[in-house]
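Record type: monomer structure entry
Structure origin: computed from sequence
Chain ID: A
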Amino acid sequence: MLGFRAPLAAVLLLTCAACGGEVECTAIGTPVGVGVTVRAPLAARAQEAEVEICWDGSCRRARIELLAGTRASGQDCSGGTCAATAVPTGDKHGFAGVAGLPARPVEIRLTLRGEGSRPLLEGKVRATPKERYPHGPRCGAGGPNTTVTVGADGNVQAES
């Protein structure tokens, strides 16, 4: 009987540790940088974007390839399996990794380029990148990021 109690006690101890609020933090991180979303119909002419992000008297530049945006449509679930079709939205998205991006106000200059790298639009906006917590605040911040959106009318706005 004593030989049975030790393994049972160990199992109960591990189970109780999980019940006590222990959080498992994995190595999943957060992309640090600036995302760009370009809304239709302007997105149809935009091929790439350039961003210049400035803070504390220095600036960093990055070029962003813009990719077609999609949304899920026609989700069908049967037998415990679900499937959906990706449908184009007409928008485009991209991301620029920016090492050292702070979680405080920065200035972002955005240039959209079309065919032949011709400038389509230039805009400037202030944004405050936010710390992201991919596993919740108990696991610590994964790093800051923000998104700049160019509306169909060409208006440039930062994530709020």
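Annotation 1: The beta strands are 33-38, 48-55, 58-65, 67-78, 81-97, 106-113, 119-127, 130-132, 143-150, 156-158.
Annotation 2: Confidence is low (pLDDT under 50) at residues 1-20.
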